[in-house]
Structures are given as structure tokens and as C-alpha cells.
Amino acid sequence: MGGHPPFFHLQSAAARGILTRPPYAPLGMKALRAPLLTLLALGGGAMLDRTAASPSVPALPVGWQGRLGALLPQPGQTVQLMEQRASLAFVELQQRVTTVGGSRDALRALMFSAAKGEPLEYDERLGITQEEFRRYVVFPSVLAPTGKTARLNVVREGNRLKFGDTPGLNGVLRGLVLDLGTGELHTPEGFGSKPRPVPPSTAPDRTIDIRGGFEWNVKGNSPVTQNGVKGQLQLLQLAGNQVILKYYRFSMLRGVTSEGSIILSYTR
């Protein structure tokens, strides 16, 4: 595949932190009850589709199918495994929340999520608007190659792209299915989400040129099947035909919990 710079410096909110603990690390059986309650609280039903539920989500642009197809990995695609080394620029947000009398507990929870590399979510207890939150939450992150490569096990069946088990990825992508007609992502836990566009990066001090991309946020649970998931998939288009694929998920499948993440770089 094409050569990579020694690291990528990401400053876009679209490319923010992802968990860096070893992917797909099963939790102990004693911990099953707490994650189940957590997933029930997060999902609140059999399925939650954020894209469909939020009227503020931007519509997909004309010609999105072609753009998505140009970013997706091919069967047998050679990918480079990346790791994220996050730092946190938090002072300005902290000062703003303190000035408006926002919740310190919400601020601490946000800092904790950032330290773990989890996707950062707006909390109205901060006392600022969601638009203002997005302006403040610009957390620089460095993506560095691990020196490891893999060949992706992906199969095209009709209008669907299926991810199989790829050696070296610890099963993080296994079971994901992407409908190329609707753009909907389906997870092995039984839930799905439609894509939202990722806008190009415009920060004047950016050190990586994100040209656009797509993002899927999946969250849901079923106490009947003992399945649940909270996950985020991103496909980011960079300069020079480079693509970043990032997937994080906290999963419960038939009562067994796991947590994992993967960051891949490849050329299309």
C-alpha cells in the first residue's frame, strides 16, 4: 500500500478519541450484571437510531453512494494498524463551564471519557449549547502506525458488504454488515444505524486534511436476547487517497460483554 507519514495529527471532532485498551477484551462473569444495566439505560428499547431520531442530522449529499463506495475497503484490502495517542486541550472549555455555572460532575465525566478515548457526547448539564460544545471540544490526537499490517476479510454479497474475522484484529469488525443501497450499518448484536456525513476539516491550524467521510452511531439493547451495543464507525477521507477506518464498540452478545476498538489506514 502507499507510504504513510510517521504519524497523523487529528484535530477534527469527527476524528476524536477512541479506546486504546486491548480490543475485544472480555470482562469477567461477575461484571455481567452492571454492563447489562448500563446497556439498558443507554438503549431504552430494542433499537435506537440516532440519525432517524434527530431532526438536526444533516441529510446525505447527492451522490453519497459513490462517495461511500470509494472509501470502503476491498476484499483482501491490505491495511495498516494504527494507534491513537491522545492529549487533551481542556482549559478553555473548563473556564467557560465554570463561568456559566455548569455542572462540575458533567465536566468531570467528560474528562473521564476523553481520558479513556471514548466518543465524547454533549451533556446539557454543562450549561452551554450543543453548538458551543462542538466549538470547544477540539481534542488533538496523534495517530501513529503500529508497524503491523493485515488483509481484511470482507465479502461483497449483492448489495451488502460483510466483515468477517481478520487475524490480528481480535474480532472487533466481525459480523458488521453494510447495506450499500441504504447506507445502513447492521451489527451482530442485532441493531443498526444510518450514516451521517462528516464535513471537511476547516481549522486553520489543522495538520491533517480531512476531506470528508461518513459516521455511524449505533446504540440499543434487548433484555430478551441479552444483546446490546454502543458503537461508532467512522470512514474518513484524507488527502492522497488515504482512508481511516475507526470502530469502537461496547457490546453484549447473548449475555457476554466485551469492549474493543480498531483504527486502520489504507489507500483507495
TrEMBL record:
Q: Which domain of life is it from?
A: Bacteria
The entry's protein name is: Uncharacterized protein
Q: Which organism is it from?
A: Deinococcus metallilatus
